[in-house]
Amino acid sequence: MTRSAGGTAEADRVPRDRQHSHRTSLHNVFSHQLPEMTKEYISQMVFDPKHKTLALVKEGRPIGGICFRTFHSQSFSEIVFCAMTSNEQGYIKDYEGATLMHCELNPRIVYTKFTAIVKKLIDMRQKEVRKVHPGLTCFKEGVRCIPVECIPGLREAGWRQPRGASSSLLSTVAGTDAQADLPALRNVLHAVKNHAASWPFLKPVDKSEARYYVSKRLFIADMTRIFTNCRLCANTLEKYFHTKMKEAGLWDK
User: Fold this and answer.
1) Could you give all domains of the chain from N- to C-terminal order, each with its CATH number?
2) Residue positions annotated with a catalytic role
3) Residue 18's Cα: distance from chain center in Å?
4) Could you report the per-residue pLDDT of 176-219, keeping only the tens digit for each?
5) If 0-12 CB within 10 Å is exposed, 13-18 middle and 19+ buried, where does residue 140 land?
6) Who's near 207: CB < 8 A, 6+ residues apart?
């Protein structure tokens, strides 16, 4: 450990050519700053070849350091001594009765560049947030609302339906009581299925014949287009539809 020309300290392991002198100086530092430790125990740890020493040297003299031992197979290190000379202390607050803690370091993260990495990640996320997508086209076809889960990309972005929330389209319409309308809707469905002209719609579309229907969004868009065409081209049918819906109690306009 040496002091740079700018006056700041730089950490490094004690070099072998100066091991004995630096270890002896650190032994004295540990002895003065850790009076409850016996000198024999400190000597045993500091000069043990299994232990490593990190020294802080100022003007050629160690002013503090760390004596530690690494356990490579268990992927952790044990700090035995950590002390500074009294005249170099006081830069940070000293807490008594602190709880021993540890943290796990990810080997894929360069922690000396942690701030720059986090900033880069934030910039990447902000770039994605600012990206403008073309938006939904189904509303141009007359659709007034669609289930949230039908919005493309929402699930991929991490959205999950709240627990207990209904995914039906009816639950997304403000003021609609699906339970109250259920009997009337069942009657309408039963009448439609029993109609003589309903046969093309009773069975699901065969994917091998019509590959277009691959999502709820496309199905809703096509059905809305059908209803729009009916309103434009079959005014009589439109009135008939309104009348039947009013009779079922499902149309209050």
Assistant:
1) 2-112 (3.40.630.30), 138-157+167-247 (no CATH)
2) 78
3) 48
4) 455 667 777 788 788 888 888 888 888 877 777 777 666 777 77
5) exposed
6) 213
